[in-house]
Every structure is written in C-alpha cells, then in structure tokens.
Automatic annotation (TrEMBL), chains A, B:
GO BP: methylation; protein histidyl modification to diphthamide
One term of GO molecular function: diphthine methyl ester synthase activity
Protein name: diphthine methyl ester synthase
Record keyword Glycoprotein present: no
Residues where S-adenosyl-L-methionine binds: L9, D84, G87, S112, I113, L163, V221, H246
Length: 269, 269
C-alpha cells in the first residue's frame, strides 16, 4: 500500500496521530524534500518517528516514481509531505500512477499554508486565486502572477503569494553534463518578493495596486518562531523575517472590521 | 493560557500529536459544535483523549466567551475546533477578546476543507473565492454566492461551495420566548445545494454557467467513508452521498490535463 502523509507546517509533533501510527508500521518511509521544508531537520523527524527516512528529491519523486511504487506493490511505503499531500501537483500525479498499477493509496491530510494563513486574521473566504512568485534570473523574469493579484484586488479579494523554493537545482553549466553540480538551496523571502513586485509596478501602467498597498509578510507559519508583519509594499521591501519559509499576502482594498482590528497587532510603519 | 486546537476532518486520530499532548494537560476542554462536525461522536473523542469534553454551542462560544476566557486566565483551557482554528470568523474574534484580556493564546493548525478538497484532483491554485450556500426558507432566498461562482468561472477558476449547517437553532416561534425550543440539526447535502443552484439558474439570465456545467460532490472528506462524484449540475440534483458533511465544487471551464485525468475515476453519467 502507498501512503501519502501530510506533516503539517511546524515541527515533528505536527503530524497527526493517524499519520504517526502509519509511519511506524511502514516498511519504507520517504521524505519529500523539494516542494517545502519543515523548520526542524530530518534527524529530529527520524528520532521522533523512530524510523529511518529516505530523503526524496525531485529526481527521485518524478523520475524514480516507478521504483517507489514498485516497493509499494509488495510492502507498505509512505511518502511524507510538508503541509497537505494535495498541495503540489506532483503528488496528485503520483497517486494516478499508483492507481494505474493497481496499488491502493491512502492520504492523510494535514494543515496547509493555504488555510493556516488565516492566522494573520484575514478571512479565508476573502482570498482569491493563490499565486506563486518565482525567482527571477537575469534573462527570465515572468510576471503573470501580477495580473492575477490585480484581478483579485479588483474583486476586493486578498492574494496569497507562495514564494519560490529552489532545492537541489543543478547549475546551468552542469545541466548537460553527466555529473550534475547542485546550487545551494534558496528560499525566497518576503523582502525579495516585495522587491520583484515593486520592479513590475515600475514598468507597468497598472493603476490597480501601487507601492502603498497593504501587504502581510509571514514567516515559519505554525512553528514556535512564527512571525507576521503588516505594512505597505514599499516598506516590505526592507523587512527581514529571518529563516524560511516565507509567504506574502497582498491585502484586498476593503477590510472587514474584524480583519482590520486583528491586523493592528502586526502593523509596522 | 487559551489553546485553539484544530481537529482535522475525519475521526479522533486526525488530531496532531502536539494538539493531543496539549489537550491531555489542559484543565478544561471545550468542543466547538456548531460550525462543523466530525464523523465520530463526542464519546469517541473523550475516550481517545482521556478527557471530559464540554460541548460548546453558539450561545456558549459567542455569549459565554467571557466565561471561557475567564477560566483561561487562571488555568489552561482548550477549545477544540473541527478543521483548522481559523476556518471560522468566530474563532478569530475569540483570539482578539483573549488578547484584550492579556491571556496568552496558542493555535494548533490542522487540515481544513479549504485545502483537503484537493483530494478530488483539482489544483488548489485554480480555485477562486470560496462561497457559502445557505439554507433557504420560504421567505429568505439569498443568492449572492451565485454571482461569485460565475465570476470565478469567467476567470477560469473552480469554486468551492461550503454548505450550510444548522445546529441547535431555535425555532422561529420560540425565538422571543424565555424557553427556547431547538430544531433538529440540519446539514445541507450536495443534492440540496444543486437544486438551489438550478432554481437560481432558472430565474437568472446569466449565460456564464448552465445546468450542464461540471460539478463535484464531496462527502465526509478525510474520513474512511469519504465519497466523491463528478457529474453535471443537473445530475448532481439527484445524487445521494449519504451522511454529512458535504461540499460542492463548481468546476471551472478549462481543466488542466492532469485534473481531467484524475477526475475520470469519480465521473458518473
């Protein structure tokens, strides 16, 4: 059987009781390591679960899916995923591949940033489409997320911006070589995201949002060191929220009084 | 200290390890019982937690907040909430009231229908604004959610429709009386929701969605008896998914190939 188990957002104790019982019974346990991370390290997880974990990078999950699922045909295999198992397309794809091979699949849900973001006091029902902000390179500066943020804003909705993660990405030079060289992991900060948004604003003639629009920066949601700040977009470009993961919210134009009252505790000028 | 603890969506073992440890240490534990329900009963929860639970209805949480928070000033009090603690406005309000009284608050996140709904294979990033569909009465038939569904659809986004719950609602006749008489609990089914949507369509001149649009009905997400069906809106009006809770998705006009492939397993004609 193949289990996809959500780990939640904070540390080892954010797993559900059901999820933990399954891990302890499984023959092999993988930890998906490239769509998100927990604030605690792999070793802390292994000690708490009492199980050895095999760290699964993108190559293993995407190209090595047959290997993982082959094992799941004969024995009980779990893939652990930060947040909820359905947060990333790649996991949905894995379930489909398992069903094709007639392998039974069971998913254990957990907290996802998509709902945990409610901790800033904004109503989850007042969010529009979620967007992803990718790292820019010198030659590749996609900005399609900007139009989505504007569209949400026009509809009086907040936008949750998920910020890019680059884990075990091969260097450009080694892409075509046999022996890949990997870059250091990178996690986009709210500061970097705000700077990219301001750069788009400068070259855009959009009048929907401007540098004064209210934003919320969130870091390490659900962990002991969680941090939340609310300020203008231009101010956010100089905010340092420390260690990853970060998320950014572009707040809609009209706040519900309760949202406004709740946000006061996070405001900086 | 005041703890708000998410219970997730299925049964007693969907609580996180962290949440369970806190419950077992608390002096008093309330179970919020009117914004959502678990498929297992209160007794199963009490046995698993090894704690007596005080069922908290709307009156107690909203009018009795001072009482609950007064206890939290002197001792450790937990309020257990199905899903994630930030799923309902009333809990955010409670945190604000606690902070006013200088009571420390800690929230333990868990799975929410807003992200667990990914189990149907639709990408969570392709959902627009979430709507609530309320029970209609003979004299009160609000339909503002319909325009939001159409707006999402126009933007090529799916809509998650949360379906109404009526728990411990006083009868109209007893509203003004001292001794309130309560109605039986009601939970809107996907069938009832589809019928209401079809009724709105009949009297609307909207051409955005019609009775042939693809919908997904979900029941008891995250539990052992979870059920998912995908069919047209008109077909959904005759689908019986059994026990609550139900949710309905109005699918956007264009599916990603992976979404389409995943949905095939749930299709009925």
């Amino acid at each position: 059987m193949f289990f996809l188990i959500g780990l939640g957002l904070g540390d080892c104790k954010d797993i559900t009781v059901k999820g933990l019982e399954i891990i302890r019974k499984c023959d092999k346990v993988y930890l998906e390591s490239y769509t998100s991370i927990l604030t605690c390290g792999v070793q802390a997880l292994e000690e708490f679960y009492g199980k050895e974990l095999t760290v699964a990078d993108r190559d293993l999950v995407e190209q090595g899916a047959d290997e993982i699922l082959g094992e799941a045909k004969e024995s009980d295999v779990a893939l652990l995923v930060v947040g909820d198992p359905f947060g990333a397309t790649t996991h949905t794809d894995l379930i489909l591949r398992a069903k094709e091979k007639h392998i039974e699949v069971k998913c254990i849900h957990n907290a996802s940033i998509l709902s945990a973001v409610g901790c800033c006091g904004l109503q989850l029902y007042s969010f529009g489409e979620t967007v992803s902000i990718p790292f820019w390179s010198d030659t590749w500066k996609p900005d399609s997320f900007f139009e989505k943020i504007c569209n949400n804003y026009r509809n009086n909705l907040h936008t949750l911006c998920l910020l890019d993660i680059k884990v075990k990405e091969p260097t450009l030079e080694s892409m075509t070589k046999k022996k890949k060289v990997y870059m250091d992991p990178r996690f986009m900060s709210v500061k970097e995201a705000a700077i990219q948004l301001l750069e788009i604003l400068k070259s855009s003639d959009s009048t929907v949002i401007d540098e004064k629009c209210l934003c919320i920066g969130l870091a390490r949601v659900g962990s002991e060191t969680q941090q939340i700040v609310a300020c203008s977009l231009s101010k956010m470009a100089s905010v340092d929220l420390g260690e990853p993961l970060h998320s950014l919210i572009v707040v809609g134009p009209k706040l519900h009084p309760l949202e406004d009252e709740y946000l006061q505790q996070f405001k900086i000028v």
